[in-house]
Amino acid sequence: MAETLKQWNEDASLCCQLDSLKRCPQFDIKLERLNFSRCHTVLIDVEAFNCGAGLIPLDGRDLWHRNFVKMPCSPSSTLDSSVKTKLKRNILGFKLPSQVQRWNIISEQLNALASKKTASAEEVVKAILKYNPKYKGQWSIDGLVNFVKVNNYFEKLFPKIAALALKLPEQVKKAVPLLQKGQPAAITLSQVQISCLLANAFFCTFPHRNTSRPDTEYHNYPTINFTRLFTDQSKCKIEKLRAIMHYFNVVLDEKTQPKGLVTFERCCLRDTDLPNWRNCKETLQKLHLTSQGSIEADGTGMLQVDFASSWIGGGVLDSGLVQEEILFLMNPELIVSRLFTEKLADNECLIITGSEKFSQYSGYSSKFEWAGPYEDNLQRDKWARLNRQILAIDALHFKHRRDQYNMMRVTRELNKAYCGFKNHHGLKGPDIATGKWGCGAFNGDPQLKAVIQLMAAARARRGLAFFTFGDEELRRGLQQIYGLLVTEETTIEL
Q1: Is the pLDDT of residue 81 over 50?
Q2: Three-state DSSP class for 186?
Q3: What CATH code is assigned to 1-30+264-494?
Q4: What is the edge-to-edge ordering of all strands in the sheet holding 389-394?
Q5: Which of 63, 211, 220, 299 could join 175 via S-S bond, C-beta 3.0 to 4.6 A?
Q6: Any catalytic annotation for residue 376?
Q7: pLDDT tens-digit map of 202-219
Q8: Residue 232: which pLDDT band, with cuts at 50, 70 and 90?
């Protein structure tokens, strides 16, 4: 027993303390002046921003094109022909135009709500179905109605969210590009612009985004309209709505309205970037192991890993409630990534810089509860982004646990993790905060997934903080594995 304890102590001494890992802003990333490029779309006026004039929406034009988000306020967004033929004659007896701009109907409905001091959930549902008439009788939005019955103070918030949604044409003037498969690109927009887009998602205004059938235009994108979140009164959806409504409550208050930027970047590994894992001579970097704490709290300032779905955000707007969904609910600005991020391929990741945390929570999965407001006091970088970087990487889902030990699948996971951990712009980044990526419902072996992440971090030359979420046995096991590998100066070659 004494010998075992001695060995554990020796292994533990090889791990580092949490405060020895690099973080932002203590670890300074040198940023150039904010600017747009062929691969970086900025939706605010960069000249005004760089001169200290604030966050002014960039002028531009609407593009109704497959490479851009099709906006609800676009002149090209009209009611489909099955609806047009049913339009009634106006009060003068003339038939309304056959091409009815959908934004006119949306504006009419949302203006009616915005003019009220309070609006009932029934009125919200009625408005949504006015400009989504083909779904009348198909959508069940009873969950929102029942939610408000026990949270009726939100009736004062609905008109304000409607007014925010109506600001879309003045807040987002330039076409928003899609972050498409195989194309590294970034989008930077203001937190106010994000809130305006999310208000439209709340009122289900985005065209062509109400179905995910394989033959539809956006079949390879996550849902963005909030329809599914309103469908029933399950406990998990009630708690989700509490978090989202709190977000709107904060952003709609002039005293607490966020005044920064957020960047969403799709990164891709080219074939020439893929490591030859059979010939990698790097040794392991620093590792901090703990069964206490969490990625989002104790990993502040590090690159925080989102155990993502390839459909970014997973089931956040439906019934899902594990690590990724909870992260998106605490940081609702992340949800807007679903508007423009195509499903991630095996060699891709999404990095979000600058999102704000608005809420606290307790529990996990079916025990999740919204636990109240959170005041985010992180410093901002030169681009007015909060010093929070979130990395979305999706692990493979194994139906049979034995399948993950196949070398082809191990290599896929190595490449996915390395894509996320790599410094894509040649700048040194902070160290990484992660944990049981791809475990739980995805059936991953926690020790294997930890070693894979250690190897990817070594290749990227970044340290790792690994949180086992209360799993003390895993912590001890990984401590021994790491101690052995470091003592033997083992390289990461397969």
Answers
A1: no
A2: strand
A3: 3.40.220.10
A4: 40-42, 185-190, 261-268, 348-353, 389-394, 303-308, 432-435, 464-467, 287-290
A5: 63
A6: no
A7: 999 999 999 888 999 999
A8: confident
Do residues 205 and 111 lie in contact, with contact meaning Cβ atoms separated by under 8 Å? Answer: no
Integer Cα distance of 381 and 53 in angstroms:
17
Residue from 11, 123, 239, 325 carrying the catalytic annotation: 325
The answer to whether 370 and 242 have CB atoms below 8 angstroms apart is yes
Tokens coding 286: 């620093």
Q: Which one, of 302, 326, 293, lies nearest residue 389 by Cα?
A: 302
Beta carbons within 8 Å of 187's beta carbon, 6+ residues apart: 40, 41, 42, 43, 176, 177, 179, 263, 264, 265, 340
Burial letters for 364-392: b for 16+ Cβ neighbours within 10 Å, e otherwise? eeeebbbeeebeeebeebebbbbbbbbbb
- Start and end residues for every CATH 3.40.220.10 domain found in the chain: 1-30+264-494
Task: Indicate the pLDDT class of residue 254, thresholds 50, 70 and 90.
Answer: very high
E strands within 5-150?
A: 40-42
Amino acid, single-letter form, for residue 76: S
The widest CA-to-CA distance across the chain, in whole angstroms, is 95
Q: Residue 306 catalytic?
A: yes
Rg, C-alpha atoms of the chain: 24
Q: Among 265, 324, 302, which residue's Cα sits nearest to residue 432?
A: 302
Catalytic residue among 265, 306, 356, 381: 306
Cis preceding linkage at 57, omega within 30: no
Alpha-carbon distance of 430 to 453, in angstroms, equals 15
Give 465's strand partners. Answer: 288, 433
Q: Which residues contact 86 (CB under 8 A, 6 or more apart)?
A: none
Q: 3-state class of 253 per DSSP? A: coil
**Residue 399 near residue 393 (C-beta atoms within 8 A):** no
User: Among 84, 79, 82, which residue's Cα sits nearest to residue 104?
Assistant: 79
The DSSP result for 354-414, as a single string, is SPPP-EEEES-GGG-EEEEE------B-TTS-BS-EEEEEEPPPPSSGGGGGSHHHHHHHH
Q: Is 419 exposed, middle or buried (0-12, 13-18, 19+ CB in 10 A)?
A: buried
Which pLDDT score, from 0 to 100, does residue 153 have?
Answer: 85
Burial 95-128 (b: 16+ CB within 10 A, else e): eeeeeebbbebbbebbebbbeeeebbbebbbbbb
Going 39 to 342 to 259 to 158, the CA torsion angle's sign is positive
CB distance 132 to 77 below 8 Å: no
Specify whether 324 is catalytic.
yes
Res 1: pLDDT = 45
Locate the DSSP E strands across 257-302: 261-268, 287-290
Structure tokens at 122: 């029934």
Cβ atoms 286, 366 nearer than 8 A: no
Q: Which one of the listed residues 11, 123, 324, 431 is annotated catalytic?
A: 324
3-state DSSP: the chain helix, strand, coil percent, rounded to 5?
40, 15, 45
